[in-house]
Amino acid sequence: MKNSNMLTGLDRVLLSGREYVGADKIDGPLVFMRNTHPIGYGELVECIDQYGKVRTGQVLDTSDEVVVVQLFEGTSGLTLPGTKMRFIGEPLTLDVSEQMLGRVLNGLGKSRDGAMLPRGEGHRDVNGLPINPTSREYPRDFIQSGISVLDGLTTLIQGQKLPIFSGNGLPHNQLAAQIARQAKVRGADQEFAIVFAAMGVKYDVARFFIDSFEESGVLSNVALFLSLADDPSIERIITPRSALTLAEHLAFEKGKHVLVIMTDMTNYCESLREISTLRGEIPSRKGYPGYLYSNLAELYERSGKIAGRDGSITQLPILTMPNDDIGHPIPDLTGYITEGQIVFDREMHARGIYPPINGLPSLSRLMKDGIGEGMTRSDHPHLANQLFASYSHVKDVRNLASVIGEEELTVLDQQYLEFGDFFERKFVHQAFDEDRSIELTLDIGWKALSLLPAEELQRVTDQEIEQHYRS
Amino acid sequence: MQERIVGQVKRVNGPVITVKGITDAMMMELVNVGEQRLVGELVKLSGTEAIVQVYEDTTGISPNDNVYGTGMPLSVELGPGIIGTIYDGIQRPLETLRNVGGDYIQRGINRPSLSRENSWMFEPLVTVGDEVTPGSILGQVVETERVLHKILVPPTLFTKGTIVEIAPKGSYSVDRTIAIVEYEGQTFQLTMMQRWPIRVPRPVRERLALHTPLITGQRVIDMMFPLAKGGTVAIPGGFGTGKTMTQHAIARWCDADIIVYIGCGERGNEMTDVLREFPRLIDPRTGRSLMERTVLIANTSNMPVSAREASIYTGITLAEYYRDQGFHVAIMADSTSRWAEALRELSGRMEEMPAEEGFPAYLPTRIAEFYERAGYMKVLNNQEGSVSVIGAVSPPGGDFSEPVTQHTRRFVRCFWALDRSLASARHYPAIGWLESYSEYVNDVAAWWDEHSDGSWRESRSQIMDLLQREVRLQQIVKLVGPDALPDSQNFILEVCSLFKNAFLQQNAFDDIDRYSTVEKQIGMLQLILSYWRLGSEAIKKGVPMVKIRRMKVVQDIARMKFSVDNDDVGELDRIALRLERSLGQLGGMYEE
Ligand SMILES: Nc1ncnc2c1ncn2[C@@H]1O[C@H](COP(=O)(O)OP(=O)(O)OP(=O)(O)O)[C@@H](O)[C@H]1O
Ligand SMILES: [Mg+2]
Question: What is the ipTM for the molecules in this complex?
Answer without folding.
Answer: 0.91
